[in-house]
Design a protein that fits this description.
Aminoglycoside 3'-phosphotransferase, Chain: A, domain 2; single chain; 2 domains; Phosphorylase Kinase, domain 1; alpha+beta; 5-stranded antiparallel sheet
Length: 315
């Protein structure tokens, strides 16, 4: 596997040299998701995949928002032959260094300003409406379809009460119109500590738009709230996530201040439906090594039994 990886890096380095991209810096793999791989080379970020699907989408999103928000510039995107095989290659301009490295040394005022800049950029991204009929569909259908899919797996989970799951499915189905009056906009959907870039202590851009979707803007906040739970979960397991938690808390505070309507949505049936989606996803992963049923039940207690919605839950 290491020889194959080294061969791929060599082929990529030759490709970059041929295209006169970058300054000859050595490639370093920074992430791998199945057949999708991400490399760093000096001023460049290189994404490579066997399939065009994910990269096509990210390329189109970046081109749509490049004049509105601080994001990586697309330098090159095409299908290329590497070692006789078709590879889809997306080359982006690096916009800074990861916040994880810079955050601990930053002053309070610098952190506040950076987070406010992040929120400002997210609002600009959320200002883009869905442009085709497929993206304008009632988002409830997407959520309920995901819940039903994961329900089929979750009911095989040996740790759960099947009758409880059936009750939750009925509740989810009854909420099939909670997003009916909301427009779908472009959602970054990946607002996390590791995707914020900085230069000299200042915000320089957001990266990784592979998970961007068209959905009601409330989902930007909801996902961040769920991320906070998972950071807490990692801290309970002994991981040092203090910087990430500080950033997330400050981001939640500023996001709800700039978006008053999102604050109200955090106590709505919309949030409850999205919480159920996440809960069923967690339960469906019971065969995975990382599955922790106690954490899944903590999630349910915090997010699926909100006081204003308890009557709904108990029907």
């Amino acid at each position: 596997m290491k020889k194959i990886q080294n061969s791929l890096i060599t082929l990529l380095e030759l490709f970059l040299k041929k295209r006169k991209l970058g300054k000859g810096s050595q490639l370093q793999e920074i992430q791998a998701r199945g057949t999708n791989k991400i490399f760093f080379s000096g001023s460049l970020i290189i994404k490579i995949s066997d399939s065009p699907n994910a990269l096509d989408w990210e390329w189109s999103v970046l081109n749509r928002i490049k004049s509105r928000a601080k994001v990586p510039k697309v330098i090159f995107y095409n299908k290329e032959k590497l070692g006789g095989k078709d590879k889809y290659i997306l080359v982006l301009q690096n916009v800074g260094r990861g916040l994880k490295e810079a955050w601990p040394a930053m002053k309070k005022a610098e952190k506040v300003k950076l987070v406010e800049d992040v929120v400002s950029n997210v609002k600009k991204i959320n200002g883009l409406l869905a442009t085709d009929k497929k993206s304008q569909v009632n988002y409830c259908k997407t959520i309920i379809a995901a819940i039903n899919k994961n329900y089929l797996k979750a009911k095989k989970n040996p740790f759960v009460d099947k009758s409880e799951l059936e009750s939750l499915i009925k509740v989810a189905s009854s909420l099939n119109a909670v997003f009916a009056n909301d427009h779908n906009v472009l959602i970054y959907n990946n607002l996390s500590f590791e995707n914020v870039m900085v230069r000299k202590g200042k915000f320089s851009g957001l990266v990784d738009f592979a998970e961007a979707i068209y959905a009601p803007k409330q989902l930007e906040l909801f996902k961040l709230m769920f991320n906070k739970f998972f950071i807490h979960s990692q801290m309970r397991q002994g991981m040092d996530k203090r910087s990430e938690m500080e950033f997330t808390n400050l981001l939640l505070e500023k996001l709800m201040k700039k978006y008053p309507e999102l604050y109200r949505a955090a106590f709505s049936e919309q949030f409850y439906l999205c919480s159920l989606e996440n809960y069923f996803l967690m339960l469906s992963q019971y065969n995975e090594k990382y599955y922790n049923h106690d954490e899944a039940q903590k999630f349910r207690k915090i997010y699926c039994e909100l006081p204003p919605l308890k009557k709904l839950f108990l029907k």
